[in-house]
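User: Hi! Is it possible to get a structure for several chains at once, not just one? Here's what I have:
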Amino acid sequence: MSNTFYPPERLLMGPGPSNVSPRVLSALGRPTIGHLDIAFIALMDDIRSLLQYAFNTHNDLSLPISGPGSAGMEACFVNLVEPGDKVIICKNGVFGQRMQENVERCGGNPILVEDDWGQAVDPEKLETALKTHNDVKIVAFVHAETSTGVLSDAKVICDIAKSYGCLTIVDAVTSLGGSPLYIDDWHIDACYSGTQKCLSCVPGISPVTFSKEAVNQIKTRSSKIQSWFLDMTLIMSYWGEGEKRAYHHTAPVNSLYALHESLVILKEEALENAWQRHDANHDLLKNALNKIGLTLAVPEDIRLPQLNAVNIPNGVDDESIRKTLLGEHNIEIGAGLGTLAGKIWRIGLMGYSSNPQNIARCATALDAVLNQN
Amino acid sequence: MSNTFYPPERLLMGPGPSNVSPRVLSALGRPTIGHLDIAFIALMDDIRSLLQYAFNTHNDLSLPISGPGSAGMEACFVNLVEPGDKVIICKNGVFGQRMQENVERCGGNPILVEDDWGQAVDPEKLETALKTHNDVKIVAFVHAETSTGVLSDAKVICDIAKSYGCLTIVDAVTSLGGSPLYIDDWHIDACYSGTQKCLSCVPGISPVTFSKEAVNQIKTRSSKIQSWFLDMTLIMSYWGEGEKRAYHHTAPVNSLYALHESLVILKEEALENAWQRHDANHDLLKNALNKIGLTLAVPEDIRLPQLNAVNIPNGVDDESIRKTLLGEHNIEIGAGLGTLAGKIWRIGLMGYSSNPQNIARCATALDAVLNQN
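Assistant: Yes, the chains can be modeled jointly so their relative placement is included. Here is the combined structure:
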């Protein structure tokens, strides 16, 4: 007979999920109400307004998709890409690869602008590609590459894309709440994020925002959107204004309680303070790692403070160290992906998890494990 | 400044969500762990085995999709339907309509076998359609139509479909855990459900199961699956056997704690006892409603015990009654949809909510509200 599951108490310092704030867990566990309840509709309105704050946008169409970040990504692509559309993907890690998959599955024509894993997106290469290819409709890229710990300059990339009349789709899964992100000022047309990174909310929900230009594009497209579940024209009717909401699907009520609370916490701290805290804790981690002989893999000017790629020293067995850290110290850090597997660890300092106590505990444990092996 | 949200305490007797068991809410609020944590992988294995129990199946590919029932529906259609495929949809309510949308968006060719809203799917009409149309690949229908409260005979319908060599896709969103459902014995090839109905778990997750024949079809299809997020060939690698799981997306960790607990509760009660309890409470509700002068809309032999369509008496204002019930008594019942709007209420008796105390409270309140208006 199966029994109730009691999770072990882990310190989550990988690429996400991060540790969820106790306030968010409390919100999550409150009694479920109906997805068309007048009290729930008021909550939806408040979530929209809090997402506008977090995204730095006035976009009306700012809402949580009822699925994880990859559903948010797909929502952006299936709504904006029509068969035959040319889409430039600036690819410098796992999630650029996934964007390419999305474009292909929408019948679009992906044009790759590639940088090595561990490098930022090169704006000059993008400009060259835009000069070479006519009629590019969309430029898409990852703001904060979770697979490598690299931040790209979203403002510069979007400026170039806009000067060629393109729409922009930006992956902000790891940046939202951790690094500066200005949807309106930077001219981002569609952006998706996740809840389990710097918002320190439970995984499974993807905040998205769409500009007026993107909404206009969606409303005037000539082909039908290939996903019913992610069709923004239908989702808009449920997340619309006023008391009258058209039923589309049953919202993940409790997860939205949790998202709401995580956004309330973010606003209480204030975005700028949260960004500063992530920066300051990154410095603490860097120093703590240096003291135990570990170095960071990403150059300082393109380094993500919330996700640190750490060089694995020569001769050290990646997997056995991570297993011991988890098994004996209850600390989770992340493995490298793709070409970086076995070469880096990924240490996250995201949201609620980003604090000096966690850094000290992680560095001490890592030092002990490295020396016992 | 936005504040923490405290939901009102509602008695949920609509079409779902149903009231979530306190045990499930406790599980939901436990600390988050990583989606690749060894402890989480053990939980995933247990969820699969519990879903096999609930679905009455030996299908290896039994898992929860990380999105609501409509994502589960889409997972079945995008994986099994290829462009040009003929799919018969037996349509007798809202969710048959949604199946049609899915087939069209996959580039398939839907053939409708229609019955009036409030009627069961007519097996003879299906047989006639199968005689008329060659090369039908799939027959799809809704087992328990949530929009009308009608149960169709899934065994008979699947027998006919199979005798013509078709795959079967069945919507069991409202039936799973509330009415008999036998995936293997009835030859159902793909089935999706929801968590927020008779499992009394939080909304946002969709249990699915696929037969060997369906898996074979998915693995040998000639066109690429149009959704990356719902591509079962990728999801299988994460939900596969053993410790090695390929990362696909971040699982909704806490919602899966909740789903697990709801399935543990179902197994403790035993499926057959849960079905019997839903039947017995349906009888109690019917008698309680008759006493206050209300009648049921659906003929007894095709009536769903967990979702009761109640005729709204002549001259009674649907919306004002529901508003008063919610505002003054904290009881939610459902409105009619489509052609049944204003004609019926939908009173749910699902999972944890299906008990004599709730029936007495609901009937008493409804009587009071009807007489005060």
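The domain at 11-16+271-372 of chain A is CATH 3.90.1150.10 (Aspartate Aminotransferase, domain 1). Residues 198 and 332 of chain A are 16 Å apart (CA to CA).

User: Great, thank you!
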